[in-house]
Amino acid sequence: MVNRLQLTQAVLLCSLLLAAPGRAGGPAPTTPEAPAQVAAIEYGPQGARPVVIQVSTRRVQWTGDWRQDAAVAHLSWSPDGTFLLYRQADTLMRHTLGEQGSIKLAEGLAMPRTRPDYELRPDGQQVALRRAPSQVAFIPVGTAAGISQQVDMPSGCLPSSMQWQPDGKVLHVLCAQESSKTAPLLVKLDPAAGVVTFRPAPDVAELLGWSEQRGLLVSGKADAYGQRPGNVKEDGSYHPLRPAPALPENSEESPPIDFVQGYLPSIDGFVMARATEDPHDPVVLTLVTPGESPAKRWLKSFKRVGTISYGVPGPWVAFVDRKPADRADVGDIYIVRAGKEDARLVIRANAKRDTFYGGPEPRPHKAGTSAPKGAGSSKKP
């Protein structure tokens, strides 16, 4: 019988595998509802750089210089699609479509992690970012005037994930504690007033998003049977939104162990990844919704799934197919409607030129379908 603790450790590798794509042949046609552009990170012999890809033509437009000495990560569009935020080493950068290059917004970000350590306010006018070791800074990034503010977190609190309320008035921050024996804290911050409240959150692993019906959505703490999505009540208590997995009787086989990968607001669904003992095993993704409805397989045609653009408000998401590279989170990029199998190729990696793509983010549909102007040259791979 497979040891569940070994599976739990092995499954942590699954946390980096977030999505898969659907097969497509020719250029991806732009429909009225599909994103016209997708931002991504281009990796090549010269390093890495952020780019914007025109979906209908697959033309690539770079927004920043190649960097060999600094990691590029965590792309995020403004709600209106007019500018793009990304991380370059310990610096938060901003690229405005139609302008040349990018500008520095802030330096001194905490060490990079697999999840973004900044969160753009829903109106796109302010960004909250994690500063080492126990601070959160609020910086104006939109067209409205404002001043930068910095809030000290409770003693020993190390911010690990953040989510704004939909009205943009309060930021929820999950904090790991310096002592591994102490439960995480869930902190509510007001940019002007500082800490509002903080409570222990021993059963919460990550903040995932926001639901109008259920409030703050989270992934539960992992155990030998994986994770379950849940929500957090006003009193800070965690409530799973799915029943515990049923254990088969008189069976020497362990039940499937699934881990929460992210939340897709357009279908009110959570993406789960199946635990594997070997990182080269095929990636199995399922979609679950609150309640007891059966889990549904998703992106069945793709066996080497990379990053998915979680949290986007529209019906389309982008993801990486790692098959061309079979290494962490780079390869071809596809777009697909959340919960569907009709994935469309956006751009293909070129192994001969050692060029691969990762970290895709579809430009918000409300931004329109016109191609961005300026900001360097463009090419068709």
UniProtKB/TrEMBL annotation:
InterPro entries: 6-blade_b-propeller_TolB-like. SUPFAM superfamilies: DPP6 N-terminal domain-like. Keywords: Signal. The keyword Signal applies. Residues 221-253, 354-381 are annotated as: Disordered. The keyword Ribosomal protein does not apply. Residues 1-24 form the signal peptide. This is Translocation protein TolB. It comes from Archangium violaceum Cb vi76.
